[in-house]
Structures are given as C-alpha cells and as structure tokens.
Amino acid sequence: TTNHLRHVDSLTISPSGAGNISHLNAVILGEALASEEDDLIFPSDEFSRQALVPSSAKYLEMYKRSVEDPAGFWSDIALRFHWKAKWGEPVYSENLDARKGTVKIEWFKGGITNICYNCLDRNVEAGNGSNVALYWEGNDPGSDCSLTYSQLLEKVCQLANYLKDIGVRRGDAVVIYLPMIMELPITMLACARIGAVHSVVFAGFSADSLAQRIMDCKPKVILTCNAVKRGSKVICLKDIADAAMVESAKNGVPVDVCVTYGNQSVLNRESTNWKEGRDIWWQDVVPKYPTTCHVEWVDAEDPLFLLYTSGSTGKPKGVLHTTGGYMVYTATTFKYAFDYKSTDIYWCTADCGWITGHSYVTYGPLLNGATVVIFEGAPNYPDSGRCWSIVDKYKVSIFYTAPTLVRSLMRDGNEFVTRYSRKSLRILGSVGEPINPSAWRWFFNVVGESKCPISDTWWQTETGGFMITPLPGAWPQKPGSATFPFFGVQPVIVDEKGVEIEGECSGYLCIKHSWPGAFRTLYGDHERYETTYFKPFAGYYFTGDGCSRDKDGYYWLTGRVDDVINVSGHRIGTAEVESALVSHPHCVEAAVVGFEHEVKGQGIYAFVTLVEGVPPSEELRKNLILTVRNQIGAFAAPDKIHWAPGLPKTRSGKIMRRILRKIASGQLDELGDTSTLADPSVVDQLIALSDC
Ligand code: 6R9
C-alpha cells in the first residue's frame, strides 16, 4: 500500500541506542522491513500527520541532539517550567562508576523550584484553572466527582497548611496509606508543596509491610482512611494501619499523628477503631484551613519522595527521587510517549501506590495540565466491561494499563468490549511486564479497532519515567517490542563480562550515562544502591532485565534476568516461552520458571492457565509443547506443564515466580511469605494440582 511505502521510505535509519552516534546512521532498512511486513504495524497517515513526533527522521534528529548535548537538550525543556532561581553550571554531573568513587547523579543542581507549584499554580496562572484536573470514578458505578485545577489547588493548600501546623517541615517523611480516592494525589501534592518527602504505601500491603516501611523512614505523620470498597469487598484500612503502628511502636518508631479520612458511606465513625490523642478525622480539621498556602521553594536535588520496591533480598529498597530532574523527565516522557494534546482525556489504571501512579497518574499528566481519570475500583466490577464503560463515560482518549489486565479481559471475551463505543480512544499504553504479541494484537485489534498505536513503555521504579518506548506516529510498531530509547536514554546490551555487544544481539540491559529522572540513592543505604545497580557491570546502571535488539534496532525486553533459564547452554527468557504458550488459542496465561535438570542443567517448568471451560488433556499438553517447539525451537520446549487455575500474583499484577520456582522444585515447605499475594489461596490450588 502507499501507506506502507511512505513509511518504509521515511524509515531509512535506525538508532542502535548504543550511545555511539555513528550507529545512528548505520542500518539501512527498506528491504529488511519489507520482508517482515507482517510483523510491522504502521500508524495511519492521518495519525502521523498530527503527531508531536511525526516521523522517524524527526525522532532521530531529536534523539541525536539529546545524547550529543544532554545539557542543552534538557535545559531547553526545563526552561518551560517555573524556577525561582535557575540552576548553576554544570547542568548535570554524574559518576556511574563505583571504581572512581561514590556513585552520584545530579541534575539542575542549584535550581530552585517546586513541583506542586508547577503542577497546579502554573496551570491556574496560565488561565486553565477551570479545566478539570481529576475525574474520580468510584468503585460503584454512579459514584463520581471531579476537581478543576483551581479546586485541586485549594484542597492541596488546605492540607499543606494543616500539615505545617502540626509541625511537618521540609525534609520530613510522611507516610501515605490511602486507596485511590482524591485525597491520595492531594496528599502527595501537599507534601511536595511544603517540601516534605512522601512515601506512599500501596493500600493493598499488609500491616507487616506497612510497619516495615514506617520503621525505615520514620514519618512525622501517617495519612490513611477508615475503610474502602474494592469490588464487593470492604477493606478496613484503618485497622491495618493500627496494627502497623502498634508493630512500629514496639520497635521504637511510634507514630504521633494518624490523620484518617472518613469514608462515611463505607464505614461510619462510630464503628471505626480509634486511639484518642493520636488519631484525627481529616474532615474535622483540614477544611478549616485557608485555601492558599505559601510554597516551600526547594533545590532541584532536594528529595521529593521515597517509594519502596522489592529487591532480591527480603528488605524492601527505598527508592529515592529528587525534585527537578524528576519533574522535567516525567512531564516530557508523558507528553511524547502519549502524544499528549490539550484536548486529550487520560486514564491510567495504575494505583498511586506504585511508581506508575506517581509518574503517570499524578506528576507527569498534571505538569502537562492534563485531565486525568482516577478509578477507585476493580476493573472487572461489576463486570468485565467496566473499563470500557468508563472510557465512554469520560471520553477517554489515552488509556494506559498493564498486560495482566489485557490478558484477563481478553479471556472474558470480546462481547464485553464491543458492547461499548470506545470511539474516543486514540492511544493505548502498556506497562509492567513484557506484553506478549497475542495480547498486544487483541489490545490493538479489539480494544483499539486497529487505529490506536500502543505505547509499550519499558521503565522501572528506579528510572522515574519511560526509558524505552514507542513514540506514537513516529515508527511502525512490532507487537511485543518497546521499540526505541526515549530522548537522552542510552541503552546498552552487555554480556556476562560487562562487554557491550553491538547490533543484533541479546544480553543484559544496562544504561550508559544518567538521565534526569534517575533515582539518586536507596534511602539510608547508598552502599546497597551501588552494589545492586552499579557494580554488576562497572560504569553502567544495571536494570536487572534481559533484552535483545533485532536487526532493525528494535528493543525486546525479555524479563528479569533472575528469570532467565539456561537450558543445555541455551539462554531462554521465561517471557519468550510464556509468549509462545499464550499464543495457543486455549492458553490464557502462562508463567515459566527453571528447575534443576540432571542432563540439561536447567529444565523448563510451565504453569498454564487455560481458557474458561477448556479441560486439560494429554493431547493439549503435547500441543502446547509443540507450539513452543515451533515458535522458539526444540531446546525451549517445556519439560513440564502444570495446569494452573490461577497464578500467584502481587496486587500490582506481577507473577511471584519465587513461589512458582519452589513449587516447581517440590520445596513446598519453603514457599516463604505468601501474604502479599492478591489471592493467597491460589498457592494451595497449585499444590493440589502438582503432578497431574
Ligand atoms: C514501571 C514498572 C520494573 C520491571 C522492569 C521489567 C518490567 C516494566 C515493562 C517491563 C517489559 C515493559 N517491565 N515495564 N517489561 N516491557 N513495557 O513496572 O516499574 O514495578 O519497578 O517494575 O517491570 O522487568 O525491570 P517496576
């Protein structure tokens, strides 16, 4: 088609992203692409024409500048924000090589700003105060409300004044344990306004996990809510917070103030457990404060927030982000990866308890003056059509979610999707894990009716914002590939010895040089920061992910390298095998782990969830193995298929492979802590189905 030719024509060069600029001019595509036509999905002319980055040539021009002159590139963007005082020289300084001294990253040091001011006051002052900042959709259909930028600013100021009044000062930690109600982003922004460091703990975490985080960051105050409904379940958050505070006090970290938002319709005051002298009802105090509040101007390198994430050891890591670089980076990545226009309505299904909710529910979108939908409930309540009913209700144009949700909705059937118009959608997004091509295609064809580009954004809590992501309209897409690096990001693929590999290859994904949104340390443990991320491959930031780059320069994330299986000397990404399995029409989800194998070193053990109503059978088992053999090779054929009615997942949807590895190796008495699972009973079901 002419459409196809036009794009191939414009797509004459491909970035290797290896940091060496000569690579940018290296790969001539044309023929190579034509031969793979089936794997390429081209944006329509109409889409590209209106896109912020309308062609691969434009991307390359901007990318080239961003890596050749990072200081100039990012300064130009940073100047569009409000700074009380401009940063000094140099614009950034970095040492990523622990052999040369302490690892250090700084951007815009000396620049004085405030991210809350830039999210709210700046947009109100620009005349956009009456635009909706947040639409809130409650758990139960029909419960909703909204806040304009001016109203949100007033709410934030009231809380900021209250927090100051009870003695919260610049640099103090504040723990937030709230569900997805307006008060969650309001609290984050209020902390930012007064220079306090927020530490949001996802409201699905247990009392023990919350206590552990309280003990690590020793907050001045914790903000929670008495109870919340999720689906048809009522969760008494305050009871969990109480238990956590008892635990932390026992360990020498008492919490003096617990501000509790009263969700009256779920649980009344009288029924809420209360500790006089410590607990305070939000509604009794906050509304009494003035609706304007002085901004605490902070240095670009002052801490903005802590967010705990799990590492390979038991103790969670407090990932610390600072203000200026994070602000510039989240705003810019949001704008380009979602081709953001002021007419868009944006909905990200992530909870603010995770990094996605920090960077792409709260900060990134608000910095752009966007209208954001936040959703309190569960995406399949009251039924599997809820997401699309919300899309229609608010005329959502950018919908950003996780592959696990895509797969589960895919399993429930197209009927739930096609029942709704979804006419407003123009861009789809995916994050959290590799999206397998079959889920990608369903998302693209069924949800987006083949007209919405998918931004498959690869990034991490540590990176602050998108690192490898499509820019919709700029490039043809390959289902399952996160495509190319974002501006200023220099990915490299290294072998076990840390030697960079060029061209088409696979290995460990590292990043060369810093970017403004990078985390600066692990709270209270800079040594662990260096050891975990900078020492494995000297001179680089090590992502912990495996990755391959194809002949066209596209990046394919293959999963955590702790999940790589080495079978007879062949390194196989668990995600590759899973992707093959789920391409079988009867398989809806799969999780693959390695287990010790006498002959091969490691064997492949696959947990497989079948489409509702399909019974497991010997024939199906053989068929699934054959599918993998056909798609990857005989060496990747699973040794064992374990029928799994469900998979053990964290509440953010990540499969807990640690548990699966134990089941696979028969170490049933060493399963460890299963309390953080969304549904711990899944584990018992799996054990019951062992050896069937
Ligand atoms: C944002 C977020 C980070 C890990 C990361 C990788 C996986 C995230 C991905 C992806 C493939 C994507 N991951 N996005 N893998 N494609 N688009 O999820 O942060 O919770 O810290 O997880 O998630 O393995 O290393 P976080």
Automatic annotation (TrEMBL):
GO terms for biological process: acetyl-CoA biosynthetic process from acetate. It comes from the Eukaryota. It catalyses: acetate + ATP + CoA = acetyl-CoA + AMP + diphosphate. Residues 59-119 form the Acetyl-coenzyme A synthetase N-terminal domain. Pfam families: ACAS_N, AMP-binding, AMP-binding_C. Residues 128-514 form the AMP-dependent synthetase/ligase domain. Its EC number is 6.2.1.1. Belongs to the ATP-dependent AMP-binding enzyme family. Residues 576-654 form the AMP-binding enzyme C-terminal domain. Keywords: ATP-binding, Ligase, Nucleotide-binding. This is Acetyl-coenzyme A synthetase. The keyword Nucleotide-binding applies. GO terms for molecular function: acetate-CoA ligase activity; AMP binding; ATP binding.
